[in-house]
Amino acid sequence: MPYEKTDDKVVLKHPKGASVVILLFGATIVSWKASDRGQLGSPTERLFLSSKAALDGSKAVRGGIPVVFPCFGPPEHPDHSKLPQHGFARNKIWAFDSIVMDNDAGVSVRLILQPNPTITKLYTKNFHLVYVVTLAEHELSTDIHVLNPASSETLDFQALLHTYIRAPANEVSITPLLGKRYVDKTENSPEARSTLKEEGRSAVDVRTFTDSVYEDTPPEINVSWPGGDLALKLSGFTTLTIWNPQEEAGSKIGDMEEKGWERFVCVEPGYVRGFKQLGPGETWIGQQVLVVA
Ligand SMILES: O=P(O)(O)OC[C@H]1O[C@H](O)[C@H](O)[C@@H](O)[C@@H]1O
């Protein structure tokens, strides 16, 4: 059996050893194990999950790949005024829909989230979210589909995959972002936080507290460090957020494990500058493929 489903999670298993664990809470991927290409040996964990993360549905998971929808950061749009930071998708129980692919190339599961009473008391817009997670030997594909089922209203949203890559934070290089415009959310004043800067580094690092939202994300991003390399192949997304709190902000995060900021970099493809405006009946798809080098 290439997958196992229990009340609270789905585990996909590839015949060559890779695996992924997806909680129905938030559709949060909490583990992805894959082996290096061309090397024997057991698959290794590729995502960071804080040992202090709550996995019981009491709060969003600190690590893995939380799904952010319909707002990123504190709510700014009138439709989102009752929502918490990063919206509700990472805090709600998604439904298992089906296994959509199961062959030698990979195994794929489809999860869905639709309005329910716990959502409509905070958010009254109609929406239909589909999340397709596909596991291959050295790749993990995560596709988020947003459908507007309304007959006349537009759906305004932001969406993002908050990918916590397990890596030695002080040694990672992220490319190619040279010349890209970004906002720096570590700046002190609201004016400075909304002023666009231009990236002057050929390889971006996170050795200091970093919270940058890049525009016009390239279709392929490389995250490398001595002894490791992960590529992100992206489509549909317009922004790329790079986040590492370092001690300065990380020590204030209650569910961050001791010095956890030393062990990950968040590389977050999204649509988070302005709002995607989806007409009635339209669908938007954002795809992230994580590829082991
Ligand atoms: O603590 P959380 O709500 O999970 O947010 C964690 C981080 O998410 C993103 O990376 C944002 O850009 C950061 O500003 C935020 O601090």
Protein traits:
3 helices; 293 residues; mainly beta; binds 6-O-phosphono-alpha-D-glucopyranose; 8-stranded antiparallel sheet; 21 strands
Descriptive account of the structure:
This protein is mainly β and 293 residues long. The protein has a single domain, classed as Beta-galactosidase, Chain A, domain 5, CATH 2.70.98.10. It is 4% helix and 44% strand. It has helices at 117-120, 190-193, 246-250; strands at 3-5, 9-13, 19-23, 29-34, 44-45, 67-68, 95-103, 106-113, 128-135, 139-147, 155-161, 163-166, 173-175, 181-184, 197-198, 210-215, 220-225, 228-235, 239-244, 264-278, 283-292. Strands 6, 11, 12, 14, 15, 16, 19 and 20 form an eight-stranded antiparallel sheet that branches. An eight-stranded antiparallel sheet has the order 7-8-9-10-21-18-17-13, with no helix packed on it. It has a five-stranded antiparallel sheet with strand order 1-2-3-4-5, with no helix packed on it. Strand 7 and strand 8 (106-113) form a beta hairpin. The two termini are 27 Å apart. The model has no long low-confidence stretch (mean pLDDT 97). Residues 60, 73, 85-86, 185, 211, 241, 243, 266, 268 line the site of 6-O-phosphono-alpha-D-glucopyranose.
Bound molecules: 6-O-phosphono-alpha-D-glucopyranose
Helix and strand content put the structural class at mainly beta
Instruction: Give the ordered list of helices and strands.
Output: EEEEEEEEHEEEEEEHEEEEEHEE
Give the helix proportion (percent range).
Answer: under 10%
- What's the CATH C level? Mainly Beta
CATH fold description = Beta-galactosidase, Chain A, domain 5
